[in-house]
Amino acid sequence: MAAKRTLEQQIAVFGESGSGKTVLLSSFYGALQEPAFLDRSVYRVSADDVGQGIRLHSNYLGMRDDGRRPALTAFAATAYRFSATFRGTSPKSASVDALRLVWHDYPGEWFAESPSSPTEQRRRADTFRSMLGADVALLLVDAQRLVDEAGQEEKYLRLLLTNIRNGLLSLRDELLPDDKPLQDFPRIWVLALSKSDLLPDMDVYAFRDLVVGKAGSDLDALRRAVGELVESTEALSLGQDFVLLSSARFDAGTIQVSDRVGVDLVHPMAAVLPLETHVRWASLKTLPAKVADALLGSVDGMAGVLAGHKLPLPGPLGLLVGLLGPDVAKAAADLAGGKLKDVHATALRKKEYAAATLAAFKMALERAEKDKVLLRSPR
Amino acid sequence: MTYLWATRGRTWGFRLLRTGGLADPLATYEAAFAGASDEVEVWQVTGAGGALRFPDPLGRRDRSGRVVPHDFVLLGDDARGVTSVDEGRRRLWPRVERVFVEAYDSAAPPTPEP
Asked: Quick check: A116 and B17 CB within 8 A?
């Protein structure tokens, strides 16, 4: 049966070649196809493009069964669309019956190297424009490079941040043809320690301290560069959210795909971080009303589902500006602890699986913070 | 001999180093390798001529430990007579071997040539 309403989140993932982007994608998707997940989950995830799904699953099985790493991704820059649909029959009152995650994959060498052909140049610009719908960007910091540069990690960190900054600045004219800053642009930039299993003693606080301590000025320069692209920089968080990721543990000849950290947080981060952060920003008195409305509008659908409100049909979600009002959004964003667990349990009982899943996403982020895998911005 | 060559270095990313003199070599490259998926070795006859892939004969790897692939598109008649990866490697590798010795370890990729 076709989904009657789909709630969509987008995330943009930046990482240099070899930083683990394809392994992360394959690990994310492959684990969702395992019986261990399917047996206990209220939803199933499939790739909207069947070919992409087969390729990612095949990558995952190659890692799991043969210790084989995915092949190099040539000239990559792709959007992957994953849909989570719920098992059984949803009650008629359920306003959403699928959650979609759009995962934009950006090769980091695009920032450091010029394109090798005119088509590649055009593709880069097109790809960057497609990213504008994402609320969250994930910037991968490669733990292998930190290990290689132990003691002088700033060499790698500064280069990484400078390359991204220069790359964005070089695209400024493409992204802002009329020189007006963008309202829609990733405003939450999470720094993610990829291959974190290589630094087992590093928790998310130590990771933050390393980045800020060794490359704080470059982080600030990147924040200012992104600030030149977006309207209202008070609604921008870059260098304040951190997460640890490990897609698998790579031993000699084997790859333990079940030994993962943070991969299960990608979809929750894409869904929940904008809800919480946009609501907070929208309450800032200095923010222009139209920006505040747009920020709230982009999370209205999610807030409505989580707060148990019926959503109007039909029409795209995420464009319900003012329909539910800031109080509903705030109530949903503020859900935490025992109250959040109650919402989760109630939604499960009523078979409102979209609400249950979003509540579970929020609970996963709470847990990750306690485990020092995730650090969320206080502002 | 006219061909496209795409590869990567130890630190620089996958890119075209030979364009076969084409204005839009990436389109030809992608059409030639369509359907080749992630195979380590490839020889397939295509509309343009033939698509050839083999792993670096000296086993050189990128920074994250993956063996560097060499992808070629042989254009027109230059694909004639090639029937296997081995035959393609024998013909193509001597043409780029020296270039790659210098390029592999350099910090930036070389500029693409026709």
From this structure: yes
> Mean pLDDT for chain A?
87
**Rounded to an integer, what is the distance from CA A117 to the centroid of its chain?**
30
| Backbone φ, ψ for residue A375 (5° rounding) | -130, 115
Do residues A27 and A258 make contact, with C-beta atoms less than 8 angstroms apart?
A: no
Please indicate whether, in this complex, the C-beta atoms of A70 and B38 are within 8 angstroms of each other.
yes
Q: Which one-letter DSSP state was computed for residue A77?
A: -
Which position has the token pair 């799904």? A53
Please, what sign has the CA dihedral across residues A29, A45, A102, A124?
positive
The candidate with the shortest Cα–Cα distance to A95, out of A307, A249, A246, A378, is: A307
Residue of B nearest to A107 (CA): B13
Q: Which amino acid is at B30?
A: E
> How does the average pLDDT of chain B come out, rounded?
91
pLDDT digits (tens, 9 = 90+) for B44-99: 998 889 999 999 999 999 988 889 999 999 998 888 889 999 999 999 999 999 99
3-state secondary structure of B97: helix
Interface test with A, best of B63, B70, B111 (most A CBs within 10 A): B63
Which of A296, A247, A321 is closest to A135 using CA atoms? A296
Q: What is the dihedral of CA A291, A292, A297, A302, to 10 degrees?
A: 130
- Amino acid letter, residue A377: S
Domain limits, chain B: 3-104
Q: What is the pTM (predicted TM-score) of this model?
A: 0.89
Report the chain A residue with the minimal C-alpha distance to residue B112. A116
Nearest CA in chain A to B68: A72
Alpha-carbon gap, residue A72 to B66, rounded angstroms: 8
User: Which pLDDT tens digit goes with each residue over A318-367?
Assistant: 444 455 667 778 888 888 999 999 999 999 998 888 999 999 999 999 99
Rounded CA separation B89/B58 (Å): 13
Q: Is B14 on the interface with A (CB under 8 A)?
A: yes
Q: What is the ipTM of this complex?
A: 0.77
Kindly report the nearest CA distance between residue A69 and chain B, in angstroms. Answer: 8
Judge: B15–A72 Cβ closer than 8 Å, yes or no. no
The answer to whether A125 touches A171, Cβ cutoff 8 Å, is yes
**pLDDT value of residue B50:** 94
- pLDDT class of A317 with cuts at 50, 70, 90: very low
Task: Residue A100: count other Cβ atoms within 10 Å of its Cβ.
Answer: 18
Tokens found for residue A110? 């695009």
Query: Would residue A308 be called left, alpha or beta, if left means φ above 0 and alpha means ψ between -120 and 50 degrees?
Result: left
Residues of A with CB under 8 A from a CB of B: 17-20, 55, 59, 69-75, 107-109, 112-113, 115-120, 123, 142, 144-145
